[in-house]
Amino acid sequence: MADPKAFVCGMPIAHSRSPLIHGHWLKRYAIAGRYDRLEVSVPDFPSFLRGIRQAGYRGGNVTLPHKEAAFALVERRDGDADAIGAVNTLWFEGDTLVGGNTDAIGFSANLDQNAPEWRRAGRAVVVGAGGASRAVVHALASAGLDEIWVANRTVGRAEDLAARFGGQVQACGLDALPDLLASAGLLVNTSSGGLKGEEGVEIDVSRLPRQAIVTDIVYVPLTTPLLAKAQACGLRIVDGLGMLLHQAAPGFERWFGRRPEVTDDLRDLVVSDIEAKT
Ligand code: ATR
Is the pLDDT of residue 95 over 90? Predict the structure, then answer.
């Protein structure tokens, strides 16, 4: 049998750190496999998907801008993909192409590893209402938090997201943040406004209770301006890199047959890569 192989596809794809992560695990577990980086354009994506079996792939990761297209095109989806409305991991069950979403698992596993008391946070406040926010809200709802607030610049998007999940998920504008934060146990930033180190959404973390946890799904820079402010206030912070590392693990297990561990070695490797490129 040919050596197992998988891929990450997206456009652009040069920046993806998935090859570094899966390459590290293949070496660590001495698996004779391959993980390819493939640039695939939007018009080419449907035919690319149809050809992956023929090309010998066991599956792969899907990143921007293809996550929603993959959701629509796979033959079957797992429950997480259905809840989130996007697919980031593909594999075959028999001849059937299945799409899953491991972002929520990655988010929860990162907090479980670094601040396990997040599950008893009571009220969580999520800033941002894009694709990443859907995965975070799904993770929080699955963990059974009492109250989940989605605060967004465009309130309508937060309302759509809350309506999608229902139950304990509620929507508001950014102006509601100060009051909400005063009794929140967990604050999650998913807004891309803080990307590349710029300030983004203004969040007054000094309003949070002393025991609150603050996390950001942005991981470049590793300590975002929000995390730096939270740390300066003495709050517990968890950076977003662990989410990236943990979301990769289920795919690796499906394609290469072994559940990989998220170790300090792996984290150090990716941190070095981030530092080299920023
Ligand atoms: P992703 O899929 O990565 O979550 P997205 O769908 O583009 O990306 O969503 C980006 C999120 O960041 C949105 O919640 C967006 O707010 P809007 O829905 O109002 O656009 C938020 N965002 C981006 N830049 C922002 C800024 N400068 N201030 C406030 N929110 C911002």
Answer: yes
